[in-house]
Structures are given as structure tokens and as C-alpha cells.
Amino acid sequence: MTPEALVRDHTIYSCVMGSRAFGLATEGSDTDRRGVYLAPTPLYWRFEKPPTHVEGPREEQFSWELERFCELALRGNPNILECLHSPLVEQVDDTGRELLALRGAFLSRRVHQTFVGYATTQRRKLDADLRQYGAPRWKHAMHLLRLLISCRDLLRTGRLTLDAGPERDRLLAVKRGEITWPEIEAWMARLHSETDEALPASPLPASPDHAAVESFLTRTRRASALREG
Fold first, then answer.
1. How many domains does the chain have?
2. What range does the domain containing 13 cover?
3. Rounded CA gap, 95 and 219, in Å?
4. What is the model's pLDDT at position 229?
5. pTM to 2 decimal places
6. Which of 18, 140, 171, 214 is most exposed, with the fewest beta carbons within 10 Å of its own?
7. pLDDT of residue 145
């Protein structure tokens, strides 16, 4: 079975991500599609295993096999967790609905480490651009700020919200280069501080619910084996 066929015939969930999901789309914004496919269990009985991810077949489309997706989500990967909370769902079947119903099981206080760690990596890239070109990539700065806002609010409330909401106009001003770099640095520093302060009292559990996710994955694999075997 080709990778394209896995995505075409076995996708359980797909959504739109990026600026469109964040409420930050402007004219000309790309449509980033992300999805999860369930490789039929009998494919794992072969020496050559199914791919853990597939790029395409559509432009700006990327999908993960369910097990790999769950592994990354349990680790608190920001990009993966946000996929589960996209307001723009394009396709979902019964298994996909089970996955969405489990999205709270993936959330824990570990998001502080993973989200902030990702933001720190992006900040280094912005600083490198600043040294090399004299200015950061404003779009990347906007998305870094949005990620920190999302992390802070997730730790405060226990809910992951993608839409930029009241910060939309200011974030888009960052993208247009209308806010100075020192102002952006100060905003980042404040968000880092607020994120750290939110951690001790966060309603999120200390760890994700591995048992619930593993039970779902095992049941799904077994059902696939009976159906496809």
C-alpha cells in the first residue's frame, strides 16, 4: 500500500492548522492541512512497516500514523497537541472522534517544558536572523508570541485554545513589522514570566494519561486486525 493510499483511504482525522486555525490568516495565507491515518494492522505483520508519517499528497499537507501521533502528543509536542484542538476540522470518522474525545488525556504540566522549549529554539532563530539581516522574521516572531500566549493560558485554565482572540490585532501588527523589536522582546519576557508563574497552580495533572491512550490504541489496532485480517 502506497503512502498516498494510506492517507486517502485510512485517514481518521484531518484539520486545518497554521494561521487559519489561529485566527491570524490574511490574504494569501497558506492552508496547512494536518491529519492522522490508521495503518491497517496486518501491514505490521510484514518486515517492511508502514510509514510513521506522510507528506502530501495535497500541497501543504502532512499526516501521522495514529501510534506516532499519540507518542508525540503524550510527549507534549506543541504542534501535535494543537492539531487536536483545531476549530477547522475537515474530516473525522468514529475512530477520529474517539481520539478527539481523548485530547484531555494528552495534556499535563509537561507542556510548560515542551512549549517553552520550542519557543526558546524559535527565539534563537530570530536572534540569528537579527544578527545576520538586521531584523527578525516578523511572521516567526508573531507565531512565537502566539505560542507563549497559548501555553500561559493552557497552564492557567487547563484548556488549549488556538484562536488569538483579543491579541489578534497586536499579533498581526508584529507580523507587519509595526512593533519594534525591543517591544517584542519585552512582550516575550513578560509572557515567559507569566507562563512560569502559572505552572505551580495549574489545574493540569503532572503527567498525561498514558493508560487511557494505550487502551484506545490497543482497541483500535485489534478492531483493525479483525476487520482487515
1. 2
2. 3-106+208-228
3. 10
4. 58
5. 0.93
6. 214
7. 97
